[in-house]
């Protein structure tokens, strides 16, 4: 076992059990600490990303730094509302009673990040875990070594290290982490490793979020602005991280008006896409409203963008995640908070309104009463109680 892994988990478990991470004050303080990390160390972050990926400063700023700040500021702004119990209506069956759904932290969670957006895809799940009130271990990708080292250094300096830890390393460290019991595991990466993580999690019945991949199709209809479509497709493929993006387009299906390799009807492409396995994203360029509806209804994918590519990833109001071989679970915005929370059902009752019909012996009038109650038949309830 990698040195210290078991001790780290024990420390975080102790911190979580103390209730420290559950308070709004603690969550907000840690989110503010992440904002300070980003704003005070922007140049170091850009340099680490350049060292790891030769990433241009503009892409580092827009796709990683701004995205982390946006996620953090949204969580801070909405935290009180997200934490607030949600009232629900109760039925005649439990009358008199009140019901609510209470978001509860899961406990101690593990985030295993990837290399292509090593800053964003490390910190966005950590932000979500903290906002939901969990203690968290981050395992950055060893492939992006400079960013991994910087994350370890900065989180160690700014964060509450009794509840937020970074463990660097490669396969041995990841293997040791997966031997521990977690309350959730969040993994971004390949399907091959995703299967290993899912198998390890199953030993402890640990829920997982797997952000994987798949080949993302683009369907291009006739009679569109082909110049704009081509520009957006090419930008989505090569304008972000040199094409190393999980939602970038991988192949195009179009008609004879646009290419020599063709399908007779655009709708035929839907079956071709579904036959390849469910992708993380699918794209359609068309002006046809009916075709848009058919595409959305027929093609199974993690997400869909119409007349552009990849932009659904940037919308905090939409869940981002895969389906089938492209992953399971989703996050972004409120969905991130929900991903690291348990929705606890709470029913409150007083000591009044106790009905004898629920207790033995089961006399005929009780059956009559309960049937009327379940049907919402108030007159039938009164008749049963009065013996009519």
From TrEMBL:
<dbReference type="GO" id="GO:0004029">
    <property type="term" value="F:aldehyde dehydrogenase (NAD+) activity"/>
</dbReference>
<dbReference type="GO" id="GO:0006081">
    <property type="term" value="P:aldehyde metabolic process"/>
</dbReference>
<dbReference type="GO" id="GO:0005737">
    <property type="term" value="C:cytoplasm"/>
</dbReference>
<dbReference type="InterPro" id="IPR016163">
    <property type="entry name" value="Ald_DH_C"/>
</dbReference>
<dbReference type="InterPro" id="IPR015590">
    <property type="entry name" value="Aldehyde_DH_dom"/>
</dbReference>
<feature type="domain" description="Aldehyde dehydrogenase">
    <location>
        <begin position="5"/>
        <end position="269"/>
    </location>
</feature>
<dbReference type="InterPro" id="IPR016162">
    <property type="entry name" value="Ald_DH_N"/>
</dbReference>
<comment type="similarity">
    <text>Belongs to the aldehyde dehydrogenase family.</text>
</comment>
<dbReference type="Pfam" id="PF00171">
    <property type="entry name" value="Aldedh"/>
</dbReference>
<dbReference type="InterPro" id="IPR012394">
    <property type="entry name" value="Aldehyde_DH_NAD(P)"/>
</dbReference>
<dbReference type="InterPro" id="IPR016161">
    <property type="entry name" value="Ald_DH/histidinol_DH"/>
</dbReference>
<protein>
    <submittedName>
        <fullName>Aldehyde dehydrogenase</fullName>
    </submittedName>
</protein>
<keyword id="KW-0560">Oxidoreductase</keyword>
